[in-house]
Amino acid sequence: MTETLFALVSSYGLWVVAASAFLSCLALPIPTSAVMLGAGAFAASGDFVLWHVLAIAWGAAVLGDQTGFQIGRWGGPLLLERLSRSSSRARLIARARATVRQHGSIGVFLSTWLLAPLGPWVNLIAGAARLPRGRFTFWDALGEAIWVVIYVGLGYAFAARLDALTKIVAEWSGLVFALGLGLGTAAVLVQRIRRRYPTQ
Predict the structure, then answer these.
(1) Which of 28, 95, 119, 142 is 20 to 30 A away from residue 89, measured at CA?
(2) Each residue of 88-115: pLDDT tens digit?
(3) Of 31, 19, 54, 32, nearest to 145 (Cα)?
(4) Which of 10-24, 68-82, 166-180 is predicted with the least confidence, judged by mean pLDDT?
């Protein structure tokens, strides 16, 4: 699968990078992190220009998030109810809803890079919850910049070990997601305890 993705990036260039970044923001199961790593490696070998890769990946990701946000504004709760009929989606949507409700704009920011599997659902829920577009755009653009720089930068820095890096990142992404959820839950618990038992 990874070799096929790298072949597509090699053949079709930045179009694949843009399409991958955009579509993954709409919850399509595309291994975009591998595409970003590959694009970074191609930039290191001189096939792409690094700033072109960064700009296109970032722009496509932000556009994808804006599309999800707008769909949430149009479809709202009815759309989320239909999407929640799948149990795996229902769990992600419930976590995304909690992220937006508890953290608002910061939740949008974290969902673009630290809690990336929640990202598409956070976009929909933020739109449905009528989060102000300006706030959404600012935090989303900032988070996507971090995500793009991390993955493209890793591919650029470790181009010679791309296959090994892709496997490590795939495992690491799941670990980071789990740790992020754990830390977020812990922070919410601490806040609730402080509200219930305020210090004198």
Answers:
(1) 142
(2) 778 878 877 777 777 778 888 988 988 8
(3) 54
(4) 166-180
Per the structure block, which two tokens stand in for 117?
Answer: 């599997």
Contacts of 94 (CB under 8 A, 6+ apart): 84
Q: Which two tokens stand for residue 7?
A: 């072949």
> Which two structure tokens, joined as six digits, stand for 174?
């799941």
Tokens of 118: 């929640």
Distance CA 67, CA 72 (A): 9
Rounded to whole angstroms, the Cα distance separating 173 from 182 reads 14
Structure tokens of 144? 């996507």
Residue 27 — φ and ψ, nearest 5°?
75, 20
d(CA 69, CA 122): 8
